[in-house]
Write a structure and sequence with these properties.
Strand order of the largest sheet: 1-4-5-6
Strand content: 25-35%
Shape: flat
Number of strands: 6
Number of helices: 3
Structural class: alpha+beta
Length: about 170
């Protein structure tokens, strides 16, 4: 059985580069997925799960399509990944460092733009922003029309009932 846990931790140098938030030095950034292999043992008629190894995959970052990105181009993980060697769970926990706060995992629009500008043109980023704006507008229209949905359902129900009465 294989479980996958996704994380956004900064790893040692990889393929894509971007600018750090604090200064203008270049760092490598990738998104990681941690694969945990586990095995079940039966002890005293109870099932126990024992996690043994973790395999870490580093994913490239690419231009995304997430409409919840309010400003700037959205960032997503790419399909390609580089798989690193598997390490024991205990070894990983000892070396992983402190957990980050949710605000430390967010990227502002300028940071995302700088991250993507090495691999995408300004037109491609603008097109992605335009597409997610169209999706957001469609969702807003749907939310505005929801109250009228009940009226439409009632009208359709009345129409079906009248057809049944006419046929009877």
């Amino acid at each position: 059985m294989t479980n996958k846990i996704e994380t956004n931790e900064t790893r040692p140098p990889r393929r894509k580069s971007c600018l750090k938030k604090d200064d203008d030095t270049v760092e490598q950034l990738s998104t990681s997925s941690i694969e945990i292999s586990d095995s079940c043992q039966e002890i005293d008629d109870h099932h126990h799960v024992k996690f043994e190894n973790i395999g870490i995959r580093n994913y490239d970052m690419t231009l995304g399509d997430n409409p919840s990105c309010m400003y700037g181009p959205p960032v997503s993980i790419d399909w390609d990944y580089a798989e690193e060697q598997k390490v024991s769970l205990d070894e990983y926990e000892l070396g992983r460092g402190a957990r980050r706060e949710s605000n430390q995992m967010q990227m502002n629009a300028l940071y995302r733009r700088r991250l993507l500008e090495r691999d995408f043109t300004a037109d491609e980023m603008q097109m992605a922003e335009h597409e997610i704006q169209k999706i957001r507008n469609g969702r807003e229209r749907t939310k505005m029309l929801l109250p009228f949905c009940k009226l439409q359902e009632a009208a359709e129900s009345a129409k079906r009932k009248s057809k049944r009465m006419m046929a009877a």
